[in-house]
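Crash report, auto-generated. Payload:
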Amino acid sequence: MSKFKKKKKGLPAISTASLPDIVFMLLFFFMVSTTMRETDLLIKKPILPTASEVKKLEHKSLVSTIYVGKSKDTRIAGDKIQVNDKIIDVNDVPSFIFAERAARKEEEVKYMTTSIKADKEANVGTILDIKEQLRDINALKVSFSTTKGNDLKSNFTN
Amino acid sequence: MARRENSEINAGSMADIAFLLLIFFLVTTTMDVDSGIARKLPEKTEDTPEVTIKEKNVLDITVNRNNQILIEGTDFVQVSDIRKIAMDFIDNGGGVSAPKADGTPGTPCDYCQGAKDPASSDHPSKAIISLQSDRGTTYGMYVSIQNEIEASYNELRNRLALAKYKRTYSDMLKDYNDNGGEKLKEKIDFLKDSYPQIISEPEPIK
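Recovered output after restart:
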């Protein structure tokens, strides 16, 4: 009966060879399924102007972003303003800010910043209109979103 | 020699490698940070007090719809010239500062290194930069000018900070953002008060 005596006692080690596969699978799953919460742009993606004296925007949760750019439809001229997922009129900017404020704690409201992401080809008139609306409702902290760089010439030459 | 059997590669550490990679990328990935030129809009008040400002204390920058820049209504300049012009204007120090709230008369600017031209601004605290743009000016141009104005203030503050505290203003700001500190705040506020940003943006030209 030596055949049976040879049988080893104790558990064999669990093969860990498939562990990396499991880890990779998890990694890929999360990579694929993660979507960054980014608003879908209904306007053409604004090409931000360049500036050298930039400040980083702290407290991302307290920033409300307004996009300004051309419509995707080339037949429609003029600048379009987008907030969240819809295109709005300048006069609706205050209601957007009020909605943003309502979503924050009261004591945080005074630290809220409005970031204007506008295309470098946009008209200043549109931007100044937005600024005027913001002034009206006391949303005084504004940041003109730019990319950091020293090549200012690219801002006004094509 | 007997050929040894091809032993299996130990795959046990593979998981560690994968984790290491995962953690490395987790740590180093930064979502694109939003940065830009920060501006504080003037508050809207019911009764705007009438203030008389001497013409020489205002630097008039006008941009038209063709992105051409006019300074003081006479000189046609490029964006790259604005920084120097603004610095010279702010730092001129040709007169005395505004009288303080308690009635003590203003003092001449003792940190200015400008030309002390009596026809230019009196004191940094009185120097106003006015940026008048046209509705048709492109935003890129507008931001460029804002950037240059900001740069001229920063450069002046840097210079004063180097002379007074032996470090640059931008360095102090960064330090304050990272670490805070009352003393540092005081110094930064002093620099800001020495060269306060007074930018006026009149209604755009239609």
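Post-recovery validation: Chain A touches chain B through 55 residues (CB under 8 Å).
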